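Co-fold these.
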Amino acid sequence: MTRFKKLLLTILISVSPLFAQVKGGITVPYIDFPMKEGKGMYSTKGKCNMCHSWGYTLNQGLQSKKFWQEKVMKMILIFKAPIEDKHIDEVVNYLFENYGNGELE
Amino acid sequence: MQRRDFFKKAIVVAGSAAVGGSTIEAVETTHPIDNRKVSDIAFPEKRPLITYSDRPPLLESPREVFTSALTPNDLFFVRWHMPLIPTYINPNKFTISVNGLVEKEIEVSLQELKTQFNQVELTAVLQCGGNSRTAFKPMAGGIQWGIGAMGCARWRGVRLKDVLAKAGLKKEATYIGFNGEDKAVYNKTANFVRELNLEHLDDDIILAYKMNGEDLPYLNGYPLRLIIPGVYADSWIKMISNITVTKEKQDLHFMEHAYRIPDNSCECETPKNLFKKTKPIEEMNVNSIIGYPVTGTKVRDASDLVVRGVAFDSGHGIEKVQISIDGGQMWEDALLDDDREGKYAYRTFTYAFKPKSSGSLTIMCKATNKKGESQPFAKDVKWNHGGYKYNGIDEVTVEVV
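Predicted complex below.
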């Protein structure tokens, strides 16, 4: 190979584009995680599904009232969930009534 | 429950504590949940997996995956923290920047990483610190995983050290912070930034662009992720695009509050008596999982059953894996593979026997590492509030017919 050809080849290699395995990116499927019908559902839906899917919440299983109370507070205090004080009870009650284990704590 | 019942209950609880002197609480550990089914919807580049959430994606590998040393990319678990993940990345434009306490701030393209640095490859287990969290009672905060928030892959990339050297660390440099391309939905929520003390920087920490010989799947952090062999997954930042070098620790929620365990010798506490001082979870416990058979598998009596699974620890290496078919009284050594994937990888094991009597038969596996550490029975694993580092002896129950 002549020196010129060699040089050309190196240039070609170094500028050859990288190809991703996936053409043009991905689409994450939408998965429906239905919420139980109940008092406070719409309000809870707007608040708790803002940053993550309802699946995140369902994954916790049936829990005590204290558990849900603390979880809602964690969302507000740590992750800055914009939930006003006057709505906290409504959300906690919806969670406990529909995803509660019957125990207060 | 009525308010009055609640107080009644409170008294009962208080009473029992008084009787025992020390804290008697219903703290117990069980086996993690093991009967969840894969979803019928597949995520991009994945086969259908156990699906907890789409936003952000949370996917767990089913037990059957844990029979081979390398976990196929399309069966590899997925855990994101922030729901806004780029769904398209142009590999020709992607760069990682290094700034902060460096001689010169740099931006390195994927192409440059692949051509201007030493290329290295190593096999390492990636495991969520909360893997098997469903074992903890009362429930510990976080994603309620079964056993499948782990996988093992061959990672190819460049040493983090070499990339930092290109920028040149300043004398005062102490911490390196890592940030990926995922973002919180709400602008007040902290992003998932992690940091590492430079003391912990070693040759095995790499920025990987290949996983088992292929591009990383998007959901596992395409096009580049951090690999920190031997430690839990919390700092293996995906889609990593920035490294910031600092003198002081940054004040980071995900460093200071998440992924921490009690800083005492048992790394344990009780719900009513949380241990104040905490430390990062870091090094992985010795662990092993049976991939075949699974609970519910039917086998003929006197047929030749070959139990298969994987064992690993933080890099000391696996000394032995033992199997018990009598509830943990007698243990027999399983056969281990030739260790070709290295000390941070799964060691696969097999154990062949002929089940004798018909009915339910429980098979347990227990790994011991070269340091002599081995797995406790599930019920003896101590509780911690985050449900981290579970490594109870695994078991499956088959039907012998």
